[in-house]
Amino acid sequence: MQDYYLLLSTGTVNTATGELAGHNIRDSSDERFFLGAFGAAGRAEEIYFGCADTKGCYGFMEGCLETSDCQAVVTYQGASETSYLIEVQGTVAERDYVAVGFSPDGVAGNEVVLGCQDVGGGSVGVVTYWYSTAGAERALEEAENQTMAVLETAYRDGDVIYCSFIIPSDFTLEVRIH
To answer: CA within 20 to 30 Å of 143's CA: 46, 51, 65, 75, which one?
Structure first.
């Protein structure tokens, strides 16, 4: 698997269609990250625990990793020799989402976006979207979704949404032309 720029966003979900309606926050890392750079995953309640030591972390607002108060944060580490553990967390309003895209060029467009979404009734779900260069998001159909093992979905501290999932190391994170 190649190195990727990490794209973080939070935003609103269209309640009629269940699709992403727009971004409130959008940020892109200045450097590329290799998702397997850290060893086997350990479960920690605190998403910031182990950043830069046992897992890689990227967060939105500058300096937020040191103060453990990012508006959106993603962590990544090897779960095994053939898979990665990804955690996504962000402060959201009702029916909102927090998501991460993996970009080969640091520019949003033509990548799969993995996210954590308020699905109503206080429930949280893991979602996959396709983000096109035209800026249109659409939920990937179940047949298009790739194998992903959801570990946890939750609200933490009222307005903080959290998801963790494992993706295989051969997970296709780039454009797939049909």
So the answer is: 75
